[in-house]
Design a protein that fits this description.
This protein has 282 residues and is α/β, with parallel strands linked by helices. It contains 13 helices and 7 strands. It folds into 2 domains: 93 residues, Winged helix-like DNA-binding domain superfamily/Winged helix DNA-binding domain (Arc Repressor Mutant, subunit A, Orthogonal Bundle); 162 residues, Glucose-6-phosphate isomerase like protein, domain 1 (Rossmann fold, 3-Layer(aba) Sandwich). The longest helix has 28 residues.
């Protein structure tokens, strides 16, 4: 059985390659899907079936033929495409309005974002591997200093982590790449320190380069990312996976910020316990 496509590009290649062997109805479906990716990203099965001139069951059968459990699973790849190809917020907003024909008011958007973030926070403790969480804390506790790097969207999470670590009096340095000097800043990290790299799809090249450099030099590396398919996973000593809320092609950072806050406070608790032990021994 062929592997399930993990990206829109891979799915597009599979559809193109398999197109000659598809039934006439599935060929019709394939043409519609590839010609209207923005509509596919946000519309319901019923809406898309009507536009494509097929039945909803045909759309489901099409997704099943490429290994997906259902249409919504395949639809996620069409949504992910918008993150990769429409990095500008104005373009994303325009794409949402074009695809859905809706103009949601501010209160409706607030409810949607709040509900989606509430759900990912509820799921966060079950999604994060507790063993990996403790191993990350072990690395941070032993480190002389912690260096944190996050490019683009991840920068907010990285900067908060550095802020929180300063408040528990753990030496911390934000690898901010000012002047494009990521590599030069990473050279200041030694093997007694630790590096935390935060990166989400589509995984900034700067983050990959920094993680690669740390891996080669044997610097303890903790990675916070969104998938086991992330290219940073193979480089990490410990990986923490986090799933963020997504509303109309916009991804949040609520779960990532919650997790970094937990890491910092948990590390502070460990440091406080260590001080108590030292005081009692004295």
């Amino acid at each position: 059985m062929s592997q399930i496509p993990q990206s829109f590009a891979t799915l597009e290649e599979r559809i193109t390659a398999d197109y000659p062997s598809l039934s006439r109805r599935l060929q019709q479906t394939a043409r519609f899907l590839l010609d209207n990716p923005q509509e596919v990203a946000f519309s319901t099965v019923a809406q898309l079936a009507k536009q494509a001139g097929v039945t909803p069951s045909t759309l489901i059968r099409f997704s099943n033929s490429f290994g997906f459990s259902g249409f919504s699973e395949m639809q996620q790849l069409f949504r992910a495409r918008l993150f990769d190809e429409l990095p500008n917020y104005n373009e994303r907003i325009r794409a949402v309005r074009t695809a859905t024909g809706e103009t949601p008011d501010s209160t409706q958007l607030l409810w949607e974002f709040a509900s989606a973030n509430e759900e990912v926070l509820r799921q966060l403790p079950d999604r994060v591997n507790s063993l990996n969480l403790e191993q990350a804390l072990d690395i941070f506790e032993k480190a002389s200093a912690i260096h944190i790097m996050g490019a683009r969207r991840s920068f907010m999470v990285a900067s908060y982590m550095a802020y929180a670590l300063h408040h528990i009096e753990k030496p911390a340095f934000l690898v901010n790449g000012i002047g494009g000097m990521y590599k030069e800043q990473v050279k200041a990290v030694n093997q007694q320190d630790a590096l935390m790299v935060i990166s989400f799809s589509p995984y900034a090249q700067e983050s990959r380069d920094v993680a690669e450099e740390a891996h080669i030099r044997g610097i303890p590396l903790v990675v916070l990312t969104d998938s086991n398919l992330s290219p940073l996973v193979r480089l990490a000593d410990v990986t923490l996976l986090v799933h963020e809320a997504e509303v109309k092609s916009f991804r949040g950072l609520t779960a990532s910020l919650c997790l970094t806050q937990t890491l910092a406070i948990a590390l502070g608790v460990r440091q406080d316990k260590a001080l108590d032990r030292h005081s009692n021994d004295a």
